[in-house]
Amino acid sequence: MALAPGLLLARPAWAQFPLGRLPPPTPADRAMLRGAIDIHTHLDPDSFGPHSVQARRALDVIDMAERAKKAGMRGFVIKQHYDQTAQLAYLASKAVPGVEVFGQLCLNHPMGGLNPAAVYHFGEVKGGRARIVSMPTWDSEKNITSRGQDRPPVRVSKDGELLAETKAVIAAIAKADVRDSDVRLALATGHLSPAEALMVIREAKRQGIARVFVTHAIGHPIDMTMAQMQEAVRLGAQIEFVAGFLIGQRASFTFDQYARAIRTLGPDHVILSSDGGQLGQVMPDDMIAMVAGLLRGRGFTAAEVRRMTADNPAALLGLPPVPTQN
């Protein structure tokens, strides 16, 4: 049954897939990783300490590149909340040939917040690995208030309107060149409130940004309703569903809700990623394989799963599609 418009996905009292009880993906599940691109991996070298407010990482970018190659994946995107990762992506791609690794910039305080200079720098790093610029994540007002923290946010709006600084950084994303590439940057909505995310999507489209996606829309702290996700799709955005929100202590909804939401939106509008790499979690590639297998068991076709794990991520990153391998 489709989720009713406006229905906020409820959180179960107990995680559906408790950490330590997750069955490993089957060989058939892992076979569905061929050609996949994970747009959301958290990897070392990253920061950890009293000022980082984030988990330790379980593996580094080279480890992930080797895992991706072994699994037959096409590639992945390195996401760090407090840095841009085009350099790491360049080095990982060079160290492990045959895997396409890309970088992301998150507009949090260490990057200067809504900083156009950071966007231009990111795009001009050698190697053509820059791909995604994200609105604030850890330092967004929504993220900070939802965690009950007392620290200054990177604000993007006031009184229901985007700030001039937000529009200026969106303009930079639209204008920035990616060195050694003819691909333009994509935009992620980060950890903004649903209302802010929709405002950002509208402004991004107005300024000519072709590729936009909503960061883990139904997960905390974004918590988009179905009606809001459908509006984002109508505006031309993709919706990211992360496997990490189904596993262990981070689980925030049941798999039934997850699958029904994807079916309601349609696989053409969904990107399946891991949001993995944290110490103590399932490895990112295993996360995607497990959820891909569960979706197949729920009636999604192999072509639909491939669309969400391979074709849609490739299009987001400005990459040509890869023919299906039988």
Commentary on this structure:
The protein is of the alpha/beta class and about 325 residues long. It has a single domain (about 25-315), classed as TIM Barrel. Helices cover about 35% and strands about 10% of the residues. The protein contains 11 helices and 10 strands. The strands form 2 sheets. It has an 8-stranded parallel sheet. The chain has a two-stranded antiparallel ribbon with strand order 5-6. Strand 8 (about 210-215), helix 8 and strand 9 form a beta-alpha-beta unit. Helix 4 packs parallel to helix 6. The protein is globular. Residues about 1-20 have low confidence and may be disordered.
Q: The CATH topology, please? A: TIM Barrel
- CATH homologous superfamily (4th level) name: Metal-dependent hydrolases
Number of domains: 1
SS elements, strand count: 10
What sequence of helices (H) and strands (E) makes up the elements? HEHEHEHEHEEHEHEHEHEHH
Strand order of the largest sheet: 1-2-3-4-7-8-9-10
Query: Count of DSSP helices?
Result: 11
Distance between the termini: 33 Å
Content of β-strand: 5-15%
Oligomeric assembly: single chain
- Which runs of at least 5 residues are low in confidence (pLDDT < 50)? 1-20
Helix content: 25-40%
Average predicted local confidence, pLDDT: 92
Inertia-based shape: globular
CATH C-level label? Alpha Beta
